């Protein structure tokens, strides 16, 4: 009798993706369990909550601790909780799907110092592992959303770059990686293209809300991070359109439950995802697309993605940030085009991104039976602008980094196209500032 496959998913959640995959595996008759060690409001129920209960209790007490001694005590107990979960998983599962660049040991003060040991032991026991990277966990900090958080402190950028490089190199030793082609600065081995896997969605993302009749188009934007999403530029662009006589309603949604956001998406005619994305379809765009809403996604990678990404390519309106206004005007003036794009997005997602379809792709990865088209060679990446930031911020960070720590601080092979492009950017920026 063939041994039943058992799949471990964890150990945090990103936009509900692992919960949807877990449910999809169950629908397929497979045994899988989702272990969420991070606080995440969208996780509705976990099959394994009993074994995680002590960890959750000790984590809550650690957060509420009033002294360093008390905090360390709860860290100590939490360490044993995680080791218990790890041993349980080691004896129970064959396949492991991790997300966002880390495993269980990451969540404890003491175990995080020996984080690599977790993956070493799993590999020693011949466990099949996948790390599902999501961009901001692998992208070089000097061209990432991280720049918004470090307040221009070059030492923090330098330190974060060293840490991210070390993490990617460590992960490459133990498992198959999934990442975006534009985020491959620190990869040395071929990996799988995120876009070929897709963002999993299920029927919960389909909304049946009846639209209210309005003679004005409704434009919707739901920023989770105002700076990273380019919300201020989006607001100013929409203000310009209003001043030029275009009639529409603008709804900006923040802080609402997931279901309420989906209902607002379904009520809109146009959705604006973000302005500085290095992929044509991330989570929000997928949720809008499954409901047939045309999505505008801005990003400098729009100049290159059709030459890089394998077919099929997500049919969102992916454009350079400076092309946002003209694309908004086009969609406002062409209702039939809005419907066509929305239907194409919907079909793309139904064909490629339903949770069961994505789950089947992961089974192929575990079995090493995926198509060659999914593989990306990091040497083919020469995209320097990253994601979540504009070109000026990237340029400033590169100049500060090289001025302070030298070209080696980029942590790139000096023979690579990426390295040469950053050095060229640095020289041009210095020449401009000296004039």
Outline the secondary-structure elements.
Layout: E1 6-11, H1 17-27, E2 31-36, H2 49-64, H3 68-92, E3 95-99, H4 115-124, E4 128-132, H5 146-149, H6 154-172, E5 176-179, E6 191-193, H7 194-197, E7 217-221, H8 231-243, E8 248-252, H9 258-267, E9 270-272, H10 283-289, E10 295-298, H11 305-308, E11 317-319, H12 324-333, H13 335-352, H14 355-366, E12 375-376, H15 391-405, H16 417-434
Parallel strand pairs: 1-2, 1-3, 3-4, 4-5, 5-6, 7-8, 7-9, 9-10, 10-11
Antiparallel strand pairs: 6-12
Helix content: 40-55%
The separation of the N and C termini measures 76 Å
Low-confidence stretches: none
Strand order of the largest sheet: 2-1-3-4-5-6-12
Question: How many individual β-strands?
Answer: 12
Alpha carbon gyration radius? 23 Å
Main sheet: strands, sense, barrel: 7 strands, mixed
Number of helices in the DSSP assignment? 16
Which series of helices and strands comes N to C?
A: EHEHHEHEHHEEHEHEHEHEHEHHHEHH
Strand coverage percent: 5-15%
SS-based class = alpha/beta
Average pLDDT for all residues:
94
Shape, per Cα inertia axes: globular
Structural overview:
- The structure is a single chain.
- The chain is α/β, with parallel strands linked by helices and 435 residues long.
- Helices cover 45% and strands 12% of the residues.
- The chain is built from 16 helices and twelve strands.
- The chain has helices spanning 17-27, 49-64, 68-92, 115-124, 146-149, 154-172, 194-197, 231-243, 258-267, 283-289, 305-308, 324-333, 335-352, 355-366, 391-405, 417-434, and strands at residues 6-11, 31-36, 95-99, 128-132, 176-179, 191-193, 217-221, 248-252, 270-272, 295-298, 317-319, 375-376.
- A seven-stranded mixed β-sheet has the order 2-1-3-4-5-6-12. A five-stranded parallel β-sheet has the order 8-7-9-10-11, with helices on both faces.
- Helix 1 (17-27) crosses helix 14 (355-366), helix 6 crosses helix 15 (391-405) and helix 15 (391-405) crosses helix 16 (417-434).
- It is globular, with a radius of gyration of 23 Å.
- The N and C termini lie far apart (76 Å).
- The relative contact order is 0.11.
